[in-house]
Amino acid sequence: MAVAVTDLHHLSATEARALFAARDLSPVELLDAVVTRIEKVNADVNALTEQLIDEAYESAREAERRYAGAGLAPRPLEGLPLVLKEEQPIAGRTLEEGSLVEQGTVADVTHPVVERVYDAGAVVHARSTTPEFSCAPFTHSRLWGVTRNPWNLDATPGGSSGGAGAVLAAGMTTLATGSDIGGSIRIPASFCGVVGFKPPFGRVPGLAPFNQDTYCADGPMGRTVADVALLQNVLAGPHPADQASLRPAYRLPRLLGTDVADLRVALCVNLGDYPVDPAVEANTRAAADALRQAGVVVDEVTLPWRREQLVATAWAHFGAVMGPFIDEVVGPHADQVMPYTREFAEAGRTAGPYVDGLVSETELYRPLGEILERYDALLCPTIGAQSIPADAAGRETPIPVGDATYPWADVILTLPFNVIGRVPVLSVPSGLSPDGVPTGVQLVGRTYDDATVFHLGAALERTLDLASGDDWWPSP
Amino acid sequence: MELHHLTATAAKELFVKRELSPVELLDAVVARTDKVGEAVNALTEQMLDEAYESAREAESRYAGSGPAPRALEGVPLLLKEEQAIAGRTLENGSFLMKGQVSPYTHPVVERVQAAGAVVHGRTTTPEFSIMTVTHSEMWGVTRSPFNLDATSGGSSGGAGAALGAGLTMLATGSDIGGSIRIPAAQCGVVGFKPPAGRVPGLPPFNYDAYCSDGPLGRSVADVALLQDVLAGPHFMDPASLRPAYRLPERLGDVAGMRVAVCVNLGDYPVDDTIAANTRAAADALRAVGVTVDEVELPWTRAQVLEVAWAHMSLAMGSFVNTLPPEALEVLNPYTREFIENAKVPRDYTTGLYGEVEFYLPLSGILQQYDALLAPTVGAAMIAADTPSIDTPIPVNGEDFGMYDVMLTMPFNINGRCPVLNVPSGIGPAGVPSGVQIVGRTFDDATVFHLGAALERSLGLTTADDWWPSL
To answer: Which pTM was predicted?
Structure first.
């Protein structure tokens, strides 16, 4: 097959698998390539909390044997380098969540996502950084320092799965896991020029209390839509310890994006009243045009959402589950945590009643539900700003959008689809901004209709054709 | 079989063959309501004008004029009052809501009407549907048609009583702690608690994984017929599951299935006669080729209440806090009791951890078995006017409280499990007993297959003498 990328470390998972199967590449060689790449660039990017090199080489050698026909048949992720988000615990290993308060804590459970990735034969070789307790859209903590965007080291790779986004863009791995309770998969995917999927609530199993949190989903990140689909099919399906995990297991189609000519997409650039930078808007409209070129009908629509209602609704929710979770830790250690962590705990304490939030969630869904009765998906930017500084620390950090500045919460267009947690959302690169940081668009599907956003995502990726040239990926 | 005790499935066949008209069937249930309605007290209102209009429309459709008959065309159906209809009263059995008119319609009501059902009345509930017996100062006492001293169960008690008494063919219910399954058990009928998200609802309960609207009927096939109308995504409820789930057309295919039976779910008291009826149901399944093994569960009633209250307090507690103190005085004593319980501060997140702990042993069993079989209610007789959750209810000579004798709440905590109540026999007080068939999360088809096989194998409800004449 044609390999468009000369550097092994920027190979897609799908290409790597084909090369493994053809015995043109060994999983050990690919692991060598990403480990070498890490040695070269991670000092600048700072995206890993630890490497798991011994176990990784053991898995890679096992994969090599399987592809050679010795032993069992290769599994879906056999031999593919993969980095886990640190927040997904591995029994017997540290679980520090980027917090001085949790330094040295060792997990006694393994996250279902981790189980599944190992069972599928992935070569897990490292764990990726997050902000403290994964509660910010930039990856900066007192414990782990500042994670930087490989495209522009002054900018954040986003958060909370910021390490995951950065390692994919920098070529330090081939696949990564993330989790998303307010945009934590889609924001780093957008800022790092990669693909990220926020599954609908219940699609991917989780751990208490977040497995019952409808805002929250663990999910896959990769450099192509096909790679993300490959990993998503490993993560999805009912788990015996999580009653909220949906049965039957949902499988994405093998062929993606081949037939989108009958689909209809609604474009909404500002989701009601989010500020969107002109450069981001231009790239979003270019994505809409690319879909039109692929035969999709794209119409512009309006939504009546207001940031104030979205944020109040979300806090009524966070105040019941994630807020107390963080507050319990922060309480006695306020002086040791990041400003954004204190802000989160405080907002949770002062949030409105949980039930009011539920009623408001239904109100917010209605206009989207009506649009999605007429359209197969909604298209909008992932983030309104061109970039956010890598060392942002809280709501005081001003984020420029066009001629004005805003606190971070106003510039991420991801939260509405955690409030409406049953919609699948795929973030796909839409171009580069003048800041030298990529932009992304969200493809938002009907509740639980994952296949459609993957079809559209694959068609968009193919038509925009950003990453097929050697010059797309950054060389920090 | 008298017309008013016909199943919906049989009625539909007769409609299609033009051997029965929907108007005749409506006449039959209305006459039956005139005769015995007062004794069971299951209806809050009748809607006869609209019903006859629907029945005539159905008659003309079956006669071949106009569009084709729909899924529930011409079938008499009663709605639980709690399921709102725009422009009609929504009182929830409470003087607090007396005379209030609903501005909106519940998705379940929409779907039933769109499917051509002949909606001819609405059924009683306890106040705010928060008790497992059905009586209120507003609507009086609803009774089991099998024994008028006994409760019809609750909260969908009017629905169960109406079906048992032959006042209708199909009924809707809702279940947040057993409110479909308990009346189904007490009234000798079939009731299905769908997994959370299967049937669309209204906020905030559409988001409540403990809560589900669902169907009741006199046969497993009837309940499946109605469930297929209720299920599927609704554009106003993001929690409603997509794609729409359809039950198989042919039910009862159980060859090779394995069922685990657990009579006490850990530590619930169960009357000897009910335990015997449950084991008879297990034997009836064995007789049709199902492997049935007895298993144990480590659950305790105290654990059930601890986990459930952590959940209920969050939803109910904040609602209750909006009530002015003078409002409490018009409430039924059991409602005030519930409010006192809901006010105890509890930690929601702790409850979420508790729910996982609680699910694990059931999940372990359901990895080895296709379903779990357990009684629905542990007591053989519960008085219709039982005033309080603390009123003593005897089980094998010992007294227990209301929550001790309802084996339903574990499957609201495990809210993604589908559960079907099927009659298992009659107890010494003349009150029917029921079993719950509990499936794997979201695996509705299996419990319907097993329920249909059990119904056929036991042969109780298919016999003419099952239904009370009153």
So the answer is: 0.96
